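> example.struct
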């Protein structure tokens, strides 16, 4: 119960911050980059679904959870990218920080829906003949008998609805809406901000203990996660850079914005992702998605920032 409370408070804070950032941004200028960021987040998860999640010995659920982490955004990596651009005197739009919730939520929802869909189909295949199962009532609900045709036509929609109603995603979305439409800046600064780091440290300690206890399950497929963690940020960053170039051509999106969009795509979530995955897909192994993303993906993404700056200088110039 305490764990769930911490998760909800953290994700509500993340959503509030994102909503405030979006509210203060130029919505017209934000539209095209925001759509591009969401598309990039979904594409990254789909790439993970056809690569890591299909590796021999890799659990589909673990692979999709890891892909969701890589599709979501690391706030610390984005902050590092901004600091480097400031040092290099490369300008970027002030609303860049408002782009991350679009990529973040799109990637996490996509990964969770695909993971829950895979679990539902596995449960259906394992059911006795004539006894078809469906997943209803949230991520922790037990499979229930249902009509086969109803499952085939409504399984994806039902899981999508359950995902959006799950406490983790719901807290993110509610926080986003409250931050967007309400003026709670003083409450955010005085209450949520001071609590954030302490609660996050407790959460990561709990997840670290769980990851350690389930580490042995990954020994035979550790090489798959190492390879993915080392190469995926490069491919994802180039995808984000391409999306940024399109936005640059359509709207005059700044060179600094293109670089930071690539940084966001290359990064992997270190704040919203772990508690969201733990709450929405408890079947996934934290050793896989936390170790692969935070342990390896984040350092690689930070090392790639000079590459994205060089590419922007070649293709855009500044």
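> example.seq
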């Amino acid at each position: 119960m305490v764990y769930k409370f911490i998760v909800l408070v953290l994700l509500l804070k993340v959503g509030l911050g994102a909503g405030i950032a979006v509210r203060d941004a130029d919505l017209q200028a934000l539209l095209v980059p925001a759509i591009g960021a969401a598309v990039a987040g979904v594409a990254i998860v789909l790439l993970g679904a056809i690569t890591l999640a299909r590796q021999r010995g890799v659990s589909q659920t673990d692979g999709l959870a890891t892909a969701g982490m890589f599709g979501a955004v690391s706030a610390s990596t984005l902050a590092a990218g901004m600091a480097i651009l400031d040092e290099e005197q490369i300008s970027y739009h002030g609303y860049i920080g408002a782009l991350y919730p679009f990529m973040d939520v799109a990637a996490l929802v996509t990964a969770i829906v695909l993971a829950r869909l895979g679990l539902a189909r596995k449960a259906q295949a394992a059911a006795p003949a004539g006894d078809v199962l469906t997943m209803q009532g949230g991520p922790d609900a037990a499979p229930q008998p249902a009509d086969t045709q109803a499952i085939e036509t409504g399984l994806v929609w039902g899981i999508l609805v359950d995902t959006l109603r799950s406490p983790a995603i719901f807290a993110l979305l509610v926080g986003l809406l409250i931050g967007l439409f309400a003026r709670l800046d003083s409450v955010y600064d005085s209450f949520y901000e001071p609590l954030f780091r302490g609660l996050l440290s407790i959460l990561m300690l709990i997840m670290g203990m769980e990851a350690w206890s389930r580490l042995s399950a990954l020994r035979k497929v550790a090489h798959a996660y190492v390879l993915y963690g080392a190469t995926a940020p490069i491919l994802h960053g180039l995808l984000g850079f391409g999306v940024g170039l399109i936005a640059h051509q359509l709207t005059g999106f700044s060179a600094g914005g293109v670089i930071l969009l690539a940084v966001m795509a290359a990064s992997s979530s270190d704040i919203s992702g772990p508690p969201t995955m733990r709450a929405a897909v408890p079947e996934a192994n934290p050793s896989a998605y936390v170790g692969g993303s935070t342990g390896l993906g984040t350092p690689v993404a930070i090392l790639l920032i000079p590459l994205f700056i060089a590419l922007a200088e070649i293709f855009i110039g500044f």
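> remarks
Residues 222-251 form the longest helix (30 residues).
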